[in-house]
Design goal:
about 350 residues; alpha/beta; TIM Barrel; four-stranded parallel sheet; 12 helices; about 30% helix; globular; disordered N terminus; signal; glycerophosphodiester phosphodiesterase
Length: about 350
């Protein structure tokens, strides 16, 4: 079955017969991180999406973590959930629609922190990008919002079934905001990790954040690996004095290396786009980060034309699948240590073609 899956991937995506040479910091193949699960094929942040990613050979699954009113960590891309659940169809929750300021931005909708876990359990997940992934809408209404503990339990069960290690790569979403309303991530996150034995830099677990303060605090309380996420512009919500651009200079990376083990930049910060939108030249960021002792895990690799460099698209339809495998190979050649993808089947097959893309 797995071999058949890989052969199909090879036919669809033109995968190479041999793995590319790896210029990672460790010399090992880069890790494939399933971005919100196999979110190119199932509604994101559902157990179904994580499970499909595991079956397709992902090394890690990535849950974004927000909190409920009763302090439970759940997996959602944002605390505002109108785009990823059917909450708007529930008249009993109509009065909870409101406008809030999240990290300095005005947001209107329904927020996880205004619901107990039991109330969230009455909602069902929906495809976040229906205009690009119409096929995924067939799964709308089928899956509940999972807790972080349920994600861990799924991973542990699948490790036993598949006989391989499966990593978890949680992101703390808006940690300063949640701390300001009395729902900090730190305590429930560390308690769960300790309960399931994640306490070492050797464990298959990374914690990531776009903010700085919570990573520094976590660095003093856990030995698991930490990743500083950055964007192409702007600054961490908790550090308006510190631009992401400056953090990615040689001096800035040295500062990051004092509390984190790696960086998670958008892919265009590593290989720039040309004026026509095609894949351009290296920015040198991977080499600078490696020199500072940091791993590099860029985001996000997606197969739809809409997200791909112009020279790797197939036709004009933004929904059509382009040559994602070629894009991934270019970044592997750049020396990335891992990558986030909505399509882990493609990523795993590029990294491990001789193993059928799977472990």
């Amino acid at each position: 079955m797995r071999h058949a899956i890989f052969l199909l991937a090879a036919l669809l995506f033109g995968l190479p017969a041999m793995a590319d040479a790896h210029a990672t910091r460790s010399g090992e193949p880069p890790i494939i991180i399933a971005h919100r699960g196999a979110s190119g094929e199932r509604p994101e942040h559902t157990l179904a999406a994580y499970d499909r990613a595991i079956e397709q050979g992902a090394d890690y699954v990535e849950p974004d973590l927000v909190l409920t009113r009763d302090g439970v960590l759940v997996a959602r891309h944002e605390n505002e959930i109108s785009g990823t659940t059917d909450v708007a169809d529930h008249p009993e929750f109509a009065g909870r629609r409101m406008t809030k300021i999240i990290d300095g931005i005005e947001v209107t909708g329904w927020f996880t922190e205004d619901f107990t876990l039991a109330e969230l359990r009455t909602l069902r997940a929906r495809e976040r990008l229906p205009q690009l992934r119409d096929a995924n809408t067939a799964f709308d209404g089928l899956y509940p919002i999972p807790t972080f503990e349920e994600v861990i339990r799924l991973v542990r069960a699948r490790e036993v079934e598949m006989g391989r290690t499966i990593g978890i790569y949680p992101e703390t979403k808006h940690p300063s905001y949640f701390a300001s309303i009395g729902l900090p991530h730190e305590a429930p996150l560390l308690e769960l990790l300790a309960r399931y034995g994640y306490d070492s830099a050797d464990d298959a677990l990374f914690i990531q954040s776009f903010e700085v303060g919570n990573l520094i605090a976590l660095n003093g309380k856990t030995n698991v690996r930490l990743i500083q996420l950055v964007d192409a512009s702007g600054h961490p919500a908790d550090r308006p004095d510190m631009s992401y651009e400056r953090m990615m200079t040689a001096d800035g990376l040295t500062v990051v290396a004092a509390y984190a083990d790696g960086i998670g930049p958008p892919k265009d910060m590593l290989i720039a786009r040309n004026a026509d939108g095609s894949l351009g030249a290296s920015t040198g960021l991977v080499a600078r980060a490696h020199a500072a002792g940091l791993d590099v895990h860029p985001w996000t690799f997606r197969r739809e034309n809409y997200f791909l460099p112009a020279n790797l698209r197939s036709g004009e339809d933004p929904r059509a699948a382009g040559d994602l495998a070629a894009e991934i190979r270019a970044f592997i050649a750049e020396g990335v240590d891992g990558l986030f993808t909505d399509n882990p089947l493609v990523g795993a097959a590029v990294v491990r073609p001789d193993a059928g893309g799977l472990h």
